[in-house]
Design goal:
It is a single chain. With about 325 residues, this protein is an alpha/beta fold. The protein folds into 2 domains: about 190 residues, 3-Layer(aba) Sandwich (Isopropylmalate Dehydrogenase), CATH 3.40.718; about 140 residues, Isopropylmalate Dehydrogenase (3-Layer(aba) Sandwich), CATH 3.40.718.10. Helices cover about 35% and strands about 15% of the residues. It has 12 helices and 11 strands. The chain has an 11-stranded mixed beta sheet with strand order 3-2-1-4-11-10-5-6-9-7-8, sandwiched between helices. Helix 7 crosses helix 8. The longest helix is centred in the middle third of the chain and has 19 residues. It is globular. It starts with 8 loop residues before the first strand and ends in a 5-residue tail after the last helix.
Length: about 325
């Protein structure tokens, strides 16, 4: 299969058609990749940025039966409705999810070695009457996985999340002993599997200010997080914590650590994005496939202008390529 040969095939979903996803593809074409890159989306969207049309029109069509060769190809999937850059249309919501379905299916059956996703607009998908909380949860359901783990990497940091896209008021109830232990085990396993880290050292943050201040500012650390960390540490995992989140990211704490596990979205990601926004990579752990993504949204105001920064997209594709690169013996 194309995804498992000497030259891996990586598929890139072009995301929300009114956003910057299609525009970022011009930057992908300009790079020298050691794999076959397949741009998945409506071919008419590619090259809409001035000066890129000729280059994008010259890209060959993807042929799954042909031997994989380095370079960029296009797998055309037509829009449901015409699209204008910067203008959302609910008529294209199912088209966006169709891109994810096609890419995920290809990865599961070995046609693609990994998928890289451009940003989607959650609001317009929900406005179309489809419940959608994000790529992470959608792909997990699509792959039959109960508990995916979201991790961002960049700026010398890896930050994973115990909970993802939840209202803050629902976070404490979601951090159960079973759920937290599962997340930590997935993080440990995929740091070994995807990043070749022999024995990952993981910092686990507390939930409350000052990690609960001995129970005076909350008891989750005493009743849930601490016991889970202790139990998993006894089983052989290298864990530190629970640490107060406001000091967990100090250089002295991070030295020698491979990842930080934050308890909720806005506890850990502001630090990561301050260090590396525009060049960070979102990696979904716990899936049977490899999936990386950009660290930003659809940037509707930049779509079609040529001003979108491709840094995160290039980093996401480079990370997927590195993970899937054949081992030389």
């Amino acid at each position: 299969m194309s995804g498992t040969g000497r030259i891996p095939t990586l598929v890139v979903t072009t995301g929300e058609p009114a956003g910057i996803g299609p525009d970022l593809c011009a930057a992908i074409v300009a790079q020298n990749w050691k794999c076959r890159v397949v741009l998945l989306g409506d071919r008419r969207l590619l090259g809409r940025v001035r000066g890129t049309r000729r280059r994008m029109d010259s890209l060959p069509d993807y042929d799954a039966e042909a031997p994989a060769r380095r370079g960029v190809q296009v797998l055309h999937m037509p829009l449901a409705a015409p699209c204008t850059a910067g203008q959302l249309d609910v008529a294209n919501a199912r088209y966006v999810l169709g891109l994810l379905d096609r890419a995920a299916e290809g990865c599961v059956r070995g046609e693609f070695a990994a998928m890289v996703t451009a940003p989607v607009h959650k609001g317009v998908v929900n406005d179309a009457g489809i419940v959608f909380t994000g790529h992470t949860e959608y792909l997990a359901r699509r792959c039959g996985v109960r508990r995916p783990v979201m991790m961002l990497a960049g700026g010398g940091l890896r930050v994973a999340l115990a909970t993802t896209h939840l209202p803050l008021e629902k976070v404490p109830a979601a951090i159960t002993p079973a759920a937290l232990a599962s997340v930590i085990r997935i993080l440990d396993t995929d740091l070994r599997r995807l990043f070749a880290i022999r024995r990952p050292r993981i910092i686990v943050c507390g939930l409350n200010p000052h990690a609960g201040e001995g129970g005076h500012l909350g008891r989750e650390e005493i009743e849930v997080i601490g016991p889970v960390v202790s139990r998993l540490r006894r089983s052989g995992l290298d864990l530190v914590g629970p640490l107060p989140a406001d000091t967990a990211f100090l250089p002295g704490q991070l030295k020698g650590c491979d990842a930080v596990l934050a308890m909720y979205h806005d506890q850990g990601l502001p630090v990561l994005k301050h260090a590396a926004f525009g060049n960070a990579v979102n990696v979904t752990l716990g899936l049977p496939i490899v999936r990386t993504s950009v660290d930003h949204g659809t940037a509707l105001d930049l779509a079609g202008t040529g001003r979108a920064d491709p840094g995160s997209m290039l980093a996401a594709l480079a990370m997927a390529e590195q993970i899937c690169r054949p081992v030389r013996r």
